[in-house]
Amino acid sequence: MDSNDQNDLKKRLELKRKILQEQKRAKEEEQKKKKEDEEQSQQMKKQEQQSSENIVKKQSDNQSIIDDNLKQQLNEQQKQKEQQIKSEALRKQSEQSNQIMSLQKKENSQSTQNNQKPQKQDDQKVIQITNKQINNQQKTFASDQKGKNKFIEDNNRNQKEELQKKNDEPKPDQIRQDKEQQVQEENKKQLLLINKKTDNEKQIRDQKHIKEQDEKDKQNKQRLESEKIEKDRIDREKKEKERLEKEKQERLLRERQEKEKQLERDKQEKDRQLREKQEKDKQEKMEKLRFEREKQEKLRQEKEKQDKLEREKREKQERLDRQERQERLERQERERQEKYDRERKEKERQERERQEQREKEKQLLNSKRQLERTQVSQKDSDSIQTKKQTQERIEQEFDNSQQQANCNIYEEGEIVCPQRTTIVSNIPLSKNVEQQQPIIENRIRKAGQRHCKIILQDLREKISKYNSKDNKKKQKRLKKYKKAVFKFLQKLPEINDQQENNTQRFLEVFNYFDNII
């Protein structure tokens, strides 16, 4: 129904637009006619002026005849104009009445079909507006006609006054003028008689013409009415067909709309079911994901707990191992110290024995020397042999002491530095004094041993700390570092009071490896 209302409104607007266009066209035609009338009146004025000038110049007896002819021409022209104006007015009125009747019928049919009060009010407004416009046009037409008639009468009166003024002017030949006046009067009389006859004939002709015109108008009216009735009948049939067609279209449209609505409802129902299914699947998926996350979270927590327990267990084991290692190292250190003390005491005892032996040998040597002085020639060979034997024995004892004092390498990082000793042999006294000097660098070696042990213990702790998948690279690097330090300590030479630069080199290398970590 909304589309039908819109179509009706469009039709009414188009009709209104057409009516306004026709009114504009009629106004334009009237303006054109006014312009043409003005041009004709100007031409008439020019002709009258020319004719008056000719009359004044000629001053002939035919002046009155010309005036009468001019008047007759003017009257005929005025009558023709009036007839044209009347016929045009009648034609316009008939056209406007036909348009109004057609509009009224269309509006009545539309009002009966729609049965809507606002539309009736709009149609009545349109009719009132058109009636007002028609009345205004008629008023303007009547006022224009009156103005034209008045204008023509004023022109005629002015022309007569000018002619009279010209005629009343003083003339040189008064006698000739009198004769001319007499001739003119006679001519006027004759013209009056002729005019009367012509007027009578003209009136008869006009009456006949009016009767014929009335008959034609009646015939035209009858013809127009019959055409109008036929047109109305055709319009009614056409409207009836249109109404039936419209009802059919509306019925089909309603059926189609109902089908579309049903399809739309079915589609919405399917969409709703699909959404519900998707929502349900989504909920199930979310539930599964949540359950999976919870499961993973539990597994992660259990794994973390297990890792924590293992780490604590490993740390505890490492602490125990470290403690055991520390105790073992301390025990080994004590054993080494005790062994060193025993060896030192044994060496001191042996040294004392050797000293006593040397003193005895010295006494024997002194006694032998005394004997040799007395028996040099006899025992020279025997003394040389005994010296060689004693020298060989001293060298053998010195080699044995050096072999016992060599370094012993135990577990990785547990290094026992060599304990340097000197042996007093049966050599000259000055050499024994040099070899028996105390070994001061033993304390330096012990400090180096402790420092190396601390380094290796720290490395072991770091390796155990980084014992995980993410820190395998660090663990490998620390193991390489540990091996490098261990090899470096193995290759480190003995330290004595003349090798302080080696200790400084050791500390620099250690700082280098520490910076790598």
Strand composition percent = under 5%
**Per the principal axes of the C-alpha atoms, what is the gross shape?**
rod-shaped
Instruction: Enumerate the strands of the largest sheet in spatial order, edge to edge or round the barrel.
Output: 1-2
| Largest beta-sheet details | 2 strands, antiparallel
Cα-based radius of gyration, to the nearest Å: 78 Å
Q: What ranges have pLDDT less than 50 throughout 5 or more consecutive residues?
A: 401-440
The number of distinct helices, counting runs of at least 4 residues, comes to 9
* Head-to-tail CA distance between termini: 90 Å
Structural class computed from helices and strand pairing: mainly alpha
Q: Count the strands?
A: 2
Query: What share of residues is helical?
Result: over 70%
- Averaged pLDDT, please? 69
Order of helices and strands: HHHHHEEHHHH
Tell me briefly what this model is.
This protein is mainly α.
